[in-house]
Amino acid sequence: MKIPRKRWSLEPETFYALYPCRLAGRGGKERHIPPICLGGLCVYMRMKEAIEQFTGWRTFKVKKGTVRGYDQELRRFCLFLRNPEIESVSIHHVMEYLNGMMELGWDHNSFVGKCMALRKFFEFYRLQKYPVLDENLIPILQKEYKIPRIADEESYKKLVAAIPQNNDSRHIRNRAIIKLLWDTGARNGEILSLDLKDLQMDRMRAIIKTEKSKGRRPIREIFWTEDTNESLKKWIEKREHLNKKMKFEEQDALFISIMGGPAHRSGERFGIKGVCEMLRRCSNRADIPYMNAHSFRHHMGHDVVLKGGSSADVMNILGHSSLASSTIYTMMTDKELESRYRQFKGK
Description:
Elements lengths: L5 E2 L4 H7 L2 E4 L5 E4 L2 E3 L2 E3 L3 H12 L5 H17 L10 H13 L6 H17 L26 H9 L7 H16 L3 H5 L6 E2 L4 E5 L9 E5 L2 H18 L28 H15 L6 H14 L4 H8 L4 H4 L7 H12 L2
Antiparallel strand pairs: 1-5, 2-3, 4-5, 6-7, 7-8
Helix pairs in contact: 2-3, 3-5, 6-10, 7-9, 7-11, 11-12
């Protein structure tokens, strides 16, 4: 870990005169913050440097997606305060930042991640004896419950039909991804992490690493239909043809980026941002509300329950770590709920 910058032993008044530390305030005003003196040394650390150290440490502790998300949230906060010394940040600055974002219309549930990132950041430095903000002062908003988006079969058929039937490798790949997401109910990241060696095409199954499991269900099986199997075969055949013309960064990756763009370079493993953008474009082309990958997952869980499956079936098929995660799929809404009610109570 990088050692923070230090100024050799000087009296605080002398050091402050030579190296004035500033924190930019609202309206372009600046206020002076004296340096921190520890053991005869005056120490300060800018937030940008502190974020880099924190991110490097978190890389060995949690998943890449979480690390990336926290890093982005912390950099926004750093930009808002114009890269202050971490010791000078107070709860007032945090609340000013959160209230400002709320006024601008940020989604309520997004504040959970923002606050957790700030909490973990200041906890990291407080445990190292830095005189920083007590992370327990940072509030964690309670999540607002929202009815999950559930894809339906009619919209799914329109989505697939919106993909042109030609020899374009992107369309062949996209069709295989959408069908695999629909048949398996797997998470976006789980499908994209598949390698060629994971597939058992003759049995129409694969063993995948469960993305969110922390121990009890590290791997599970997923299955698909013959129609999806045919789409996968076409893509694998096309992939082999592409491999002769372009360099693949991961030779085993099942789905790869072909044209490249803002999210991925050509030849990289296809990523979540790429799939999200692809589904958005296909939904627009099909003239249907946006269908994301998780709406397919909700459809799978809901469909299992409607056809007589239990919460345990949902848990096993979707790879949940507990039954509590599966209960949301047993909920009925709108016409479906009304129909069920009428069945029991009549008109």
